[in-house]
Every structure is written in C-alpha cells, then in structure tokens.
Amino acid sequence: MDILALNCGSSSVKYQLYDWAKKEVIAKGMVERVTIGDSFIIHEVPGRETYREEYECPDHKVAIHLIIKILIDKEYGVVDEIEQISAVGHRVVHGGEKFTCSVRIDDDVLTAIKEVQHLAPLHNPPNIAGIEAAQAVLPKVPHIGIFDTAFHQTMPKSAYTYPLPYEWYEKYSVRRYGFHGTSHLYVSKRAAVLLGKDIKDCNIITMHIGNGVSHAAIKNGISVDTSMGLTPLEGAVMGTRCGDIDPAIPAFIMDKEDLSPKEIDSILNKKAGILGLTGQFTDRRDVIEGAEAGDERCKLALDVEAYRLKKYIGSYAAVIGGADAVVFTAGVGEMGWLIREKALGGLEFMGIILDKEKNRNTMTRKKETVITTPDSPVKVFVIPTDEEMVFTEDVVAILEDTYTDHMNFKYSFGSEEFQRK
Asked: pTM for the whole thing?
C-alpha cells in the first residue's frame, strides 16, 4: 500500500510517496512556481540522483498531473501504474472548530473546509484547489484531510478566547486556533519516548521554528495553549511575519502612510519579522553571517527573536505547571544552535542547564539529540519533525477503521521500538 501525501501552497505542491509495507519513503519532491510561470519539479528518490524538469503548471491540477507522471515514469518513477497509490493525504491549514482530527474527505467535508477559508485566505484556497485537483486526477482512491488546527482543539476556552466583543466569536468565529499541529504532535510524542514516560504524564513545550514559527504548551499530552491565533500571523517573530505587536500599530501606520487594510495586512505578513528587522534577510543563516560581520540590524534581529522565544518558554512553563522538556524542531529549531543558545541562556533557575558544546555540535535534520547536561532537571531536545509520517499513519488508520483521537491512537513513533529511517 503506497500513500501519497500532498501539501499544496499558493504557488507550490510538496509531495511524498510512502510504502506502508516497507515503512519507508520511496519518493518525495516539490513542484514550484505553480500558477506564476516558469514552473519546475524537483523529484528525489533514495539512492538516485535528484531529477529536475521544467514543466509549465498554470494551476494545481496540472501540477498534480505532473507529480503522477513522474511517479509512474519508467526512467524516473517508483511505481509501475497509478493504481498502486492507495490513498492521498492532504494538508489543510485551517479546519476551524469543526475538525478535531483527520477525516475522509467527502462533499460535506469539502464544503466545510470552504466555509472556513476566510480564516486562512492565504492557505486554505490552495489547499482546496489541491484537493479538487487530486480528486480529478485520482478519482477512485480515498482522500483524507489532515488539519493543522486539529491538534490544538483541546485548548480550554480561557486559552482560545480573545478579550474582544463576544459577538465577534459568535458571528465570525474569531478565536485562537493555532497551527503546525502535526509537527507539535509528532515531536511531543517523540519527546515522551525520550523521557521514558507515557505521553499522558508529560508536560512539554514544543518550539517549531522555521520561516513560520509556533509554540505549544502541552500538559499531560494535550495542547492547552499555542502561540499562533486566528491566523498564522500571531505569536513569535517569524521570517516575514511580525508575531505579537501592539494592536494599535496597524491603525497608526495606516493613518501615517495612507495604507489600506489589504496593504497593511500584506506588510505584516510578508515584510515584517526577520525581514523587516534586517531589511534584507529571512534565512537565519544569512542573519547570523551578517551579525558576525558586524551588521547591527542582524544582531538586533537575532536578539529580538531569541528574547521572544525565551518569553514563550517562561510563560508556557507557568501555564503547564513546570516542564519536563522543551523541544526545538523545524529548520531553524533543528539547525540554529546560536538562536537556541541565546533563547535558553539564563534559564538555569527553571531547571534548564544547557550543554553549550553539545548544542553547538547539534546541527542536523536527521538525529534526535538532548542538548542539556545529564543533571539538568528539565531536558531540552532537538527533534527533527516528520509531519508526513503523521499524514501517512492517519490515512492508513482511517482506511483500516482503527483511527481515533491522538491521545488514544497508537502512532508508531510513540513507541520505544520506533526507528527513524
């Protein structure tokens, strides 16, 4: 049984094909510049050279056709015929309040996803386009929706309710939802294994740090708070997103610069964060190089980001009544030793004693590592995330009718026997 995982962005489609019987990824890749011209596919198969092909994709349907074409290609493909694909798992960024777990997509589910697309106007429309395109290309196989927001639907009302006119929640569903749920789920389960404890007995702070950044406060194995809110704009400093700011600033700048709501929203999402602070960079490697070369704005960007991370660790430790572990994951979380060192510095009073040498030597996306000293009461782990593994296991469990909520479902990666390939 081969499971295809699709992650459709506004101008890209990421994919992974997983052989369930062999428990291994047999192909993965990305189609880039979908809808905007000069499209191409990057196709990777273990043991082979990476394949790239220029192929114009004016929409997601053509992009998914291209993916299938490459997967069954006699020279570059990995399956003999399209019928070997048993099911497709789709990442859906926003599920609103309706979806608390992964589900089989039917007409009613697709309608419900469309009904909340106004809550994620940058993300849900391409997710929907990808679902409809894949259904057209692969009409005979089950399609499963995996929601970024589902993991955080365990938050108490006091955590997800904003201090705004309550009718905004009743009329427009304005509340905290949170994102990166599959990543927080995966790394928290792995952290429990590394702690040698049942996930239900664990209090964990998970830090997903990439271009997008979100944190989760996990108490007794479930999410009780998270940094992103109604949209992925709230929370930590990100590559191009501002995160937490004084809510009066947008109106103030709109008045001073004569900007429209659409223009200020675009700036806060696409021109703020690390890019706004440095004026030129989003990649933290570039920022670190700039700081080392004496660029004061790069130094400031690193300090601002690390300071915000430190604040979230402290506040979430208070929320969950003390942490057993802190987990860093995603590109910057896994590779950015300097940002981790700055964020964890001075937290010895909380029981976090960083092993600086081990932290500096931990720059990998393949290995799980503890970067605190053996006598540190609170452990800090660097755990490479694997959202596609969550996709795949949810899809198979739904097909086999064994799926349930994440606290009771037995994921393979929640076991001591699990070996990351």
From this structure: 0.91
